Amino acid sequence: MELAHWPAPGTRALGEMLVAALIPMVQLPPRGLWRTKARVRNALLSTWLGREIDPPSPDGSDPVGQALVRRYLAAFGPAATADLRAWCGLAGLPAAVAAIREELVSFRDERGRELLDLPAAPRPDPGTPAPVRFLPAFDNAILGYHDRGRIIDDAHRGLSVAGARMVLLDGRAAATWTVEAGTVVVTPLRPFSQADRTAVAEEGRALAPFLSDNDSRRVQIAAPPR
Question: Which PANTHER family does the protein's record reference (predicted)?
């Protein structure tokens, strides 16, 4: 690839992109520090593991690909194979899914799509209450699926890739949140009931001390959209 094809970006940025795209790499910890950020440090995956990387098997017999499927389903199942592919960005996983299919259980969602899961994975009753949760930016609870409509409305889907921090109400994205001068500021994406406001404020007050240098427990809930 000739760098002259992309004159605007710096050569360092292009070089890092090429390295990440063509060579198995790992980002070294610590990347995220408490209330601040560290510089990105990368290393060869083979150096990190202390061994050379085996190429994947085209017939799905690669145990690494199968382990990846199991670990994804342990965190995000039941899920469709499209969800798995969107989460990891890897092609060729259908072979790994096929290789362990007898280990899995399957379901159908409202649209008839097949969802796979581990047999012993917890699957709460649909009526189980889901507590309020404040999610960080780019949290896997939202980005872990191709069908993000299961947790965020289509009208707000763009927020999930723009770095917005989401508030979940009853398991769905209902607001965004930021921290301003030690105050947790919540901006609803839909009107809140009084019970919603109380639950969000309570969870926000529990979160606030972790995000401030003092013991502030201030929460501000903005006006809902009209």
Answer: LMO0824 PROTEIN (PTHR38479), WINGED HELIX DNA-BINDING DOMAIN-CONTAINING PROTEIN (PTHR38479:SF2)
